[in-house]
Amino acid sequence: MGDTSASTWMRRALQLAASGPWPDPNPRVGCVVVAADGTVVGEGFHHGAGTPHAEVEALRAAGEAARGATAYVTLEPCSHSGRTGPCTEALVAAGVARVVFAQSDPNPDAAGGAERLHAAGVQVTGGVLADEAAHLNERWGRTVLLGRPLVTWKLATTLDGRSAAADGTSRWVTGEEARADVHELRATRDAVLVGTGTALVDDPRLTVRMPDGSPAPHQPLRVVMGLRELPEGARVHDGPGCAVRLSTRDPREALDALWLRGVRDVWLEGGPTLAAAFVRGGLVDDVYAYVAPALLGAGRAAVADLGIGTISDARRLRLVDVAVVGQDVRIHAVPVRDDATTDPRLPAQP
Q1: Which terminal residue of the chain has fewer beta carbons within 10 Å of its beta carbon, N or C?
Q2: Is 0.90 topped by the overall pTM?
Q3: Which domain of life is it from (predicted)?
């Protein structure tokens, strides 16, 4: 089949892959099995950690019709055994004659599938719509390269950079529309993280709620890190989903613990001290700042001391998007890092 046919079937595989979940420890992958006469005999996509991979699902649908067929896969078939067996073995056992994939697997633990297929006598073609496939799994790819969960820091501040008034009150810095927007973004992560200080002072639930106040279908893991104990009646223990305590003040140690739990995307809502610890450690990947048209003149700053003494040392961010949300402004920005400009494997910054 020519390049046109390969692109057509790969686009269908990408459509299937987009149905997969994120956040998830695994990438979103789609597969289409096409017989020699151009008939689609099987389709599949990965439904999340612990479920059959896209290739296995498509091969099961194809049955004996997979023999001599071509499998179009959005990611290089894996060659390792995790919760499921290697997809390369499943493809060879099914008698597939050719495998066309889009993106090479950036995960060193799973890479090498193309070589194994070729060694088994399967014709292999890679790089078909590779950019589209990489874009689909951009956040997953970043976690693989970083070896830790991605961290998005959310803050709410007045025009003069205050997150709370002089008496400590902070509800509400921003308006109802901005708070609803935060809940929508929370739902796209698999953990919400605060420090014990925020948990003790604000007593947040950290759940995701719908506009009508009802619980959202997806509830990120609620995480509190720090050394101070929480009262049994703390509201973070209530509601749907799970809550976890991490007895550490070390941001990297906390991220390592979450990584082992399968967490890949963290929404950081801690106070200024915790936020500063993550920023100073170079562990913030995205920033969502909600700025209210209000002035306090005194009170708690949005972030604590970063050890910066002069303007030339300011930590710069690259602007991604600015939006008006109700009466507030939402700024999405990403930190400018040396690794983002020197490592060609990392995605280009927006």
Answers
A1: C
A2: no
A3: Bacteria
Strands 221-225 and 243-246: parallel
| Cα–Cα distance, 266 to 285 (Å, whole number) | 10
pLDDT by residue (tens digit) across 5-21? 899 999 999 999 999 98
Catalytic residues: 55
Place of tokens 């019709």: 65
Q: Decide: 153 and 279 in contact? Cβ < 8 Å.
A: yes
E strands along the chain, which residues? 30-34, 40-45, 70-75, 98-103, 123-125, 150-158, 191-195, 221-225, 243-246, 265-268, 286-292, 317-325, 328-335
Q: What is the pLDDT of residues 169-179, one digit of tens each?
A: 888 899 999 99
How many other C-beta atoms are found inside a 10 Å radius of the C-beta of residue 345?
10
Euclidean distance between CA atoms 323 and 340, whole angstroms: 25
Burial zone of 290 (CB within 10 Å; 0-12 exposed, 13-18 middle, 19+ buried): buried
Nearest Cα to Cα of residue 31 among 78, 85, 100: 100
Distance between CA atoms of 124 and 37, rounded to whole angstroms? 19
Please tell me the distance from the alpha carbon of residue 196 to that of residue 231, in angstroms, as a whole number: 11
Which regions in the chain score pLDDT beneath 70?
Answer: 1-4, 81-84, 110, 338-350
Q: What are the distances in angstroms from CA 258 to CA 147, 244, 245, 340? A: 12, 10, 11, 23
Q: What is the per-residue pLDDT for 347?
A: 40
Of the candidates 116, 136, 188, the residue with the CA atom closest to the CA atom of residue 13: 136
